Amino acid sequence: MADVVVIGAGPAGIFASMELVKTSPGIDLVMVEQGSDIDTRGRTGRDMLVGWGGAGAYSDGKLTVSTDVGGQLSAIMPEDDLLDLLTYVDGIYERRSPGSALFAMDPEEVASMAAKARLAGLVFVPARVRHLGTEHLRTILEVFRRELEGKARMLFGVRAAEILADKGRVTGVRLEDSSVIPARYVIAAPGRVGSAWMRQQAHRLGLESRPNPVDVGVRVELPAVVLEPLTSRAYETKFVHFSRTFDDKVRTFCMNPYGEVVIETVGDLVTVNGHSWATKRTENTNFALLVSANFTEPFDDPIGYGESVARLANMLGKGVIVQRLGDLTGGRRTTPGRLQKCTTRPTLKQATPGDLSFCLPYRILTDIVEMIEGLDRIAPGVNSAHTLLYGIEVKFYSNRITLDGELMTQIEGLYAVGDGAGITRGLIQASCSGIVAARSIASRMG
Ligand SMILES: Cc1cc2nc3c(=O)[nH]c(=O)nc-3n(C[C@H](O)[C@H](O)[C@H](O)COP(=O)(O)OP(=O)(O)OC[C@H]3O[C@@H](n4cnc5c(N)ncnc54)[C@H](O)[C@@H]3O)c2cc1C
């Protein structure tokens, strides 16, 4: 009988485990991870998202210290408690990566940016951002791994098949090979990659859950100098726009100054993403523009919708499509010849020059173009014919499981945390959620 089984070794599972061994020395803790350990984990295909460190292992490592960004933990705890927790977690990352850059605007800068944004029809969302950088994040994950060595039993390459419960109380976990780990507590932290599995378990166990919206859009790439006045002060500037035509919410997301655009593979889907290194630079900055697609009855499959849009781009472009903004608004395809003439040199070479208007619904395309016009009033040059748009960028979120204030499900002793529970969307809130569950278990175990 283990005290606790943690399913998934992404940030949520790692932080839950680190907090448990700290608060309950001698605890019998088992971590079950379907991917590889950090030293054998590759950087291609499925390895990109699974293994020690989870989806974030090769990410940009941007920690957004804000209660409004990267998750919905503010719905389950008071704002001030969440801010304390975010600061605590930021400190843990920072101590393992001394010297990482922290970007924070002073109050006058925030007020001036908010006023400028308002004039442009945008809302500015100020946030403190720590940029770890892709290469440093891996080192930090290695440190976390060493710190847990000998304090938790770790099973790699092993998939949890079923969460077991009896009379409303969790009893353990059945693994893929049918062996069972009986346990007093289980923390499910399967991430977005495990969202289908989590949905299945919720259904089997009779847990309530509801779909989260899907975010669909494009990745924008432009010369870094265009956004330099913003990124030099805030690293990532977040803006929200409610589009004129559809009143939809459009937002900037995951800004990577001097970074590169990359391909992301989700199952058989090829989508686009971006990141930046701490120690090397490209000449471009990239960021996503995403539209939240909310649906009403009878449709309740936002993930299926997002997949269909991405599939269209994959069908037409044999992967990711890239288009010059001038070609999109001029109603023509970007051809290899036109791309050659583009003054923004693409950092993603494998994208096919094409026409995004064949894949993105009119509504989403209109929202994106209107947002670009607004951004251009804050940073002239965004709405240039030579700005590149890559598609499709899509963010799937797991179903949101019904949880109490300690992130326990309706099954006693079963916790669901991180992106897989649909409660977070980023490294720092996922890490925080693991700590919330760990503290709850520690206090129950006495
Ligand atoms: C390319 C990319 C860039 C990103 N950049 C940033 C960024 O800069 N800043 C930011 O805040 N966020 C970023 N994110 C998001 C961030 O990585 C996630 O929000 C975070 O990793 C979620 O943590 P998690 O622990 O909930 O899940 P994950 O990190 O997804 O980890 C879940 C783990 O559970 C394992 N698992 C799943 N099911 C099972 C099972 N049945 N049995 C055993 N193991 C299982 C998986 O293999 C995986 O390792 C990025 C994501 C990607 C993909």
Shape designation: globular
CATH fold annotation of the largest domain: FAD/NAD(P)-binding domain
Instruction: Tell me roughly what share of residues is in helical segments.
Output: 25-40%
Give the mean pLDDT.
Answer: 94
Given as residue ranges, the uncertain stretches (5+ residues, pLDDT < 50) are none
Report how far apart the termini are.
17 Å
Structural class: alpha+beta
CATH top-level class of the largest domain = Alpha Beta
The CATH architecture term of the largest domain is 3-Layer(bba) Sandwich
Task: Using the CA coordinates, give the radius of gyration.
Answer: 22 Å
Ions and ligands? flavin-adenine dinucleotide
What's the quick description here?
The chain is 32% helix and 27% strand. It is an alpha+beta fold and 446 residues long.
Protein model, in words:
The chain is of the alpha+beta class and 446 residues long. It has 2 domains: 223 residues, FAD/NAD(P)-binding domain (3-Layer(bba) Sandwich), CATH 3.50.50; 182 residues, no CATH class. 32% of the residues lie in helices and 27% in strands. The strands form 5 sheets. Strands 5-13-14-17-12-20-18-19 form an 8-stranded mixed β-sheet. Strands 1, 2, 7, 8, 9, 10 and 22 form a 7-stranded mixed β-sheet that branches. A 3-stranded antiparallel β-sheet has the order 3-6-4, sandwiched between helices. It is globular and about 65 Å long. 51% of the residues are buried. The mean pLDDT is 94. Bound molecules: flavin-adenine dinucleotide (FAD).
